[in-house]
Design goal:
The chain is of the alpha/beta class. It contains 17 helices and 23 strands. It has 3 domains: 2-215 and 407-479, 4-Layer Sandwich (Metallo-beta-lactamase, Chain A); 222-401, Rossmann fold; 490-530. The strands form 4 sheets. An 8-stranded mixed sheet has the order 6-5-4-3-2-1-22-23.
């Protein structure tokens, strides 16, 4: 009964944990690393073909984005998650695969002109479609038995539609332990979805600490702030352009615009149009509509019972095709445009910026965190000229930022979630926070509240039965060597296929001699063809 830390250890993306109990092998999350990574991730102690289950906390790519990758390399277990998470992954993983293929195609066109070797995408659409067939989804609070010794349950954690903390009960050789994986803990009083639900007991807690060093402060009146921005912009006969993440943030904004419309908070512009220009956002909005009763907070449920769709209103326009997207800027009528990506680093939003940044009557509104090095960050910091699609664009539009819309709990929210346990866990492991935050928040929890806290680096192994560390590692700075790069490509897929074949052979132990002999002949025939 062991737990191994793999990803998002002293870092904030690429969440992945490995544990084994009752003869089964699990991953909790299988996320993609995004942005700048400081430390190398340890290799799994088993092949992907040996993983029986992936327990998935939510659909964000930094928690789910590598599922197609491990499918391509032999994983054929089941992905266990909530119903809404499965619905969102159905669109997000396919979108991610499309991005991987498109970026590889673009890079390979440049490589071909330069006489350089081509690269394979991290994974392909077939890999996303394949892993989606392995999903098994459940309701919140439903007890799920995975074996005689393993049971799990998903508890709403209020971060994203379908997001969850995961309770795991494990028994092996007469020893029982309960683990709780927090997932990303949500901020309170957010539109649409419920506040985090709390858990009462655990032996071990694996807890995120993204904002363990800061407080969000008082909740701003976002509806009034947004209405004021729209009023001033439309009065100038300009467009309001909002870069927004397609899943979560876009739907929150639609909820706010419904209130603005219903309460008549924008005067003199009756019927102003709000465009959602992102195929992914449009699909995600449909998923939100389909999960009305299971995930929404009480205020939103009351609207539904009255027959009111909380994220729909007169004047809402959904743009899917490229032609529809282009027509938005050909229409001279002042309007609101919500488009992805949220940090302006890709997607249709860059086209809308090209058409609106140089106009003094327009406003660009940022509603989320902007990472260092992104176009969104440079605009917030006052950049006066940007380059888009080969053109230098002057920044004349008004730049606004709506603070306090984070979907992550702050330091106070993290403490509240942890203090909800009626008895202190034996051990709290901090993950999903940057290097400094993991250390400082861990010291704070120990000194102020008396918790036994550890912030492990990738590769650390803990014996859950004995309650002791087996292996303690230090952070290894990222330095991607050529052999590792090659292993990520086509040859890496071939190695993984061989590992999966060995796993299939083991599964057939005890089979009929006639069938095993036929299987062996097929393998030998394949080897004869390819042996060089």
């Amino acid at each position: 009964m062991r737990l191994m830390f793999i990803g998002a250890d002293h870092e904030v993306t690429g969440s992945c944990h490995y544990f084994e109990a009752d003869g089964l092998k699990f991953l909790v999350d299988c996320g993609m690393e995004q942005g700048i990574n400081r430390f190398q991730n340890a290799q799994l102690p088993v092949t992907y073909a040996e993983i029986d289950y992936v327990l998935l906390t939510h659909a964000h790519i930094d928690h789910a984005g590598m599922l197609p990758f491990i499918f391509a390399r032999g994983f054929r277990g089941n992905v266990i998650c909530t119903d809404a998470t499965a619905d969102l992954c159905n669109i997000m993983l396919k979108d991610s695969a499309h991005i991987q293929e498109s970026e590889a195609e673009w890079k390979n066109r440049k490589a071909k002109r330069a006489g350089k070797p081509e690269e394979e995408p991290l994974y392909k659409m077939d890999d996303a479609l394949g892993v989606l067939k392995l999903f098994r989804s459940y309701s919140y609070n439903e007890m799920i038995s995975l074996s005689d010794g393993i049971a799990v349950r998903f508890i709403d954690v209020g971060h994203l539609l379908g997001s969850a903390s995961i309770e795991v009960w494990a028994e092996e050789e007469g020893i029982s332990r309960k683990l709780v994986f927090s997932g990303d803990i949500g901020n309170k009083r957010k539109p649409l979805i419920r506040d985090p639900q709390y858990i009462k007991d655990a032996d071990y807690v694996i807890m995120e600490c993204t904002y363990g060093d800061r407080f969000h402060g008082a909740d701003p009146d976002h509806v009034t702030i947004l209405a004021d921005i729209v009023q001033r912009t439309l009065d100038r006969k300009g467009n309001v352009v909002i870069p927004a993440f397609a899943v979560g943030r876009t739907q929150e904004l639609l909820y706010m615009f419904r209130i603005i419309k219903a309460d008549g908070l924008v005067k003199g512009h009756d019927g102003f149009e709000v465009y959602v220009d992102s195929p992914l956002a449009v699909e995600a909005t449909h998923v939100f509509k389909e999960n009305l009763t299971d995930c929404y907070d009480e205020e939103t449920k009351k609207l539904v019972l009255k027959g009111i769709n909380p994220i729909s209103f007169p004047g809402l326009k959904l743009s899917i095709t490229s032609e529809e997207s282009k027509n938005i800027n050909f229409d001279t009528k002042p309007k609101v445009i919500i488009s992805a990506a949220g940090m302006c680093d890709a997607g249709r939003i860059r086209h809308h910026l090209k058409h609106n940044l140089w106009k003094r009557e327009c406003t660009i509104v940022f509603t989320g965190f902007q990472s260092v090095g992104t176009l969104g960050r440079s605009l917030i910091e006052g950049r006066k000229e940007v380059r888009l699609f080969g053109e230098d664009i002057q920044v004349e539009a008004h730049i606004e930022q709506m603070d306090g819309m984070s979907s992550h709990a702050d330091k106070e929210g993290l403490i509240t979630w942890l203090n909800s346990f009626e008895k202190k866990p034996k051990q709290v492991f901090l993950v999903h926070g940057d290097d400094q935050v993991c250390s400082s928040f861990g010291e704070f929890l120990t000194e102020e509240y008396g918790y036994n806290v550890n912030a492990p680096y990738s590769g650390t192994v803990y014996d859950l039965a004995k309650g002791e560390f087996v292996t303690v590692t230090e952070g290894v700075p990222v330095k991607l060597t050529e052999p590792v790069k090659r292993a990520l490509g086509v040859y890496g897929r071939l190695i993984a296929a061989g590992e999966r074949l060995l796993q299939v052979i083991r599964h057939n132990e005890g089979g009929a001699n006639k069938d095993l002999a036929k299987f062996a002949d097929q393998i030998n025939s394949l080897c004869d063809k390819w042996d060089r």
